[in-house]
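Blinded run. Sample ID left blank on purpose so nobody reads anything into the name before looking at the predicted structure. Input follows.
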Amino acid sequence: MLNINRLQLLREVANRKTIAATADAFFMTPSAVSQQLSVLEREAGVPLLKKAGRGVELTSAGNLLVKNSEEIFAAIERAEAQLIDTSKGLSGNVKISAFPTSQRALVVPAVVTLQKNHPNLHLHIQDLEPEYSLPMLGAGDLDVAVYYEWNVLPTIPAKGIETYTLVTENVYLGMPATHPLAKVKRSIGISELSDENWIVGRESTSMLQFVSAATAQAGFSPRASFQSMDFDVILTAVEAGLGIALVPPLAFMETTSHKQKVVYKSLAELHLHRTAKVAVRKGSEFNPLIKEVLRTFQAQASSVQYRLDLLHTSLKENFLYTR
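Blinded prediction complete.
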């Protein structure tokens, strides 16, 4: 019979691509992971892994086993959910991650509501980008992950997780109020911005890939003068005249920083948006604790979406928005 713990190791190798990364996730040594996977191969009776460069990849049999095991892990999550005793109200621990710009408008108000309604529900929240949060969710290091996707980039694979859309926000051009285009009474074509300095995310992140994909549609690559994953830092740099940036409204609608010094303009040539989603492991959505967290996040998201829609209408009518 196949061992469930070894199956979990195999699933993580499929996600993380290396034995070393899998070992780090499970606080094991690489040799211990390799040994356990060798035992799993003997149990399965077929090779499950093969070398690929400096890493490893799954064989066709390994991929088939991981695919079928997702149903097993989902069943375990459902079984654990059914064991929770809710007769005295919700109590227990839930580990949550969220990307930073979702915290002000979405996550923090939802957490306040959860703690008010369920004082015995203990929440641990941390800032994480999707590149980190989704692998941690799959490994069991998190219970709930709020993450984002950009419409001009491929959808993030969702192996073994259930996802729910929270809000969709249009992305706008942020520029210094002193910029020559700031007061123009029209939307800005991204092709007009090929000679600008751009403030973008770090290398190998979707924040940088998003800007590159957007500018590629206008036939140029962004000249990146400043890189940061913190939109408050990005907007501070925009305010200082160091460049322009593509900015989703969750980054500025809940703060008075940069007021009247950064102008947000709609784009004329292409529609850019970011979708905030919440993810849980398959089967865990039946857990009463997780279910309540999801319900509360979705209720708060409805309010946030209404405000995002109002902001979009304002930009369409006035061609600019200042804070």
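Unblinding after everyone has recorded impressions. DSSP finds nine helices and 13 strands in the chain.
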